[in-house]
Design a protein that fits this description.
Layout: H1 2-9, H2 16-27, H3 33-45, H4 50-63, E1 74-78, H5 89-99, H6 118-124, H7 142-146, E2 157-161, H8 165-176, E3 181-187, E4 200-204, E5 207-211, H9 232-243, H10 249-266, H11 272-284, H12 287-296
Parallel strand pairs: 1-2, 2-3
Antiparallel strand pairs: 3-4, 4-5
Length: 298
């Protein structure tokens, strides 16, 4: 590890294979706490390269226990780490997508830049079958960048929100070399999801686009409209209000916009407007609430 740290500190990057091996060694406990912390700190101070991202991803997928399904599943998630402390938009969107007929294999995590991540939230409701990755970490690391790429369900369809435009482009490049149906997005003002506070840049199988809230058929929102709770309990209250049809118009719009983009990812030939209509019906009909209750009963 000393040699690798010196290489990184001297502004050199890792090859794909070296990155893969380092992460395999790190997860096996080969390095001490100080070395591990130093290694992760490097990626808080500089950008990750495509080769490093590929290598880290390959290591995580190599180490995971695959979850196999008989039909195409979708993941709806963000990297987190955008520092915006929004309510649980991607988690809510997952239930909207599932209720619209698209099976979802959600890959969640504990909150880093917000008070409550998807794993915190689902544990609060009593759903314990989630992976406690990075629970003790309090800062954004390269694990944020990796999260959406290492879903052990190997989803064929995926909506990924990322915290920087540079990372969005890297994800877009990597996903173009897979057989996934995908949408990678980043709101221009920094959100790792469709915020509706500004235009959103998105990369899909059909190329790169910029969409305003109006292009999506949605209203323009403000930062305060998306604020999440300060505790897990407050976040859970917002979550349930939205599912029960008691959310604000802004909250509903944000959820529908993200769920709509996810549905678009799986059926791009049908276009975004059709996907938004499906998402709106799924939330407002109560089907998403039913999907959530069905999960808790399993």
């Amino acid at each position: 590890m000393k040699h690798i740290l010196n290489e990184l500190i001297d502004h050199r990057s890792l090859t794909k294979e070296t990155a893969r091996q380092v992460l395999v060694d790190l997860t096996s406990g080969k390095y001490n706490h100080s070395q591990t912390t130093a290694f992760m700190t490097v990626y808080m101070m500089r950008s990750i390269t495509v080769d490093e991202l590929q290598g880290f991803r390959d290591a995580m997928l190599e180490l995971c226990l695959p979850a196999k399904f008989d039909q195409p599943v979708m993941d709806v998630c963000g990297t987190g780490g955008d520092g915006k402390n929004t309510f649980n938009i991607s988690t809510l969107s997952s239930f909207v997508v599932a209720a619209a007929g698209q099976p979802v294999a959600k890959h969640g995590n504990y909150g880093v830049s917000s008070a409550c991540g998807s794993s915190n939230l689902l544990e609060h409701f009593g759903y314990k079958n989630v992976a406690p990755i990075r629970k003790e970490l309090g800062v954004k690391t390269f694990f944020n960048m990796l999260g959406p790429m290492v879903n052990p369900a190997f989803p064929k369809r995926q909506l990924v929100g990322v915290f920087s435009l540079e990372l969005a482009r890297q994800y877009g490049y990597l996903y173009q070399n897979t057989d996934k149906d995908f949408v990678i997005l980043h709101s221009i003002d920094g959100y790792d999801e469709v915020s509706l506070t500004c235009p959103v840049k998105y990369f899909s199988n059909k190329g790169e686009r910029l969409a305003t809230p109006g292009d999506l058929g949605m209203p323009q929102l403000k930062y305060g409209d998306l604020r999440g709770g300060d505790t897990v309990e407050e976040s859970a209250q917002v979550f349930m209000r939205v599912l029960e049809g008691k959310g604000t118009s802004a909250q509903n719009s944000a959820v529908i916009a993200n769920a709509g983009m996810a549905l678009f990812a799986g059926h791009q030939d049908e276009g975004i407007p059709a996907a938004m209509i499906k998402a709106k019906e799924s939330l407002e009909s109560g089907k998403a609430l039913k999907a959530f209750k069905n999960l808790l009963q399993k």
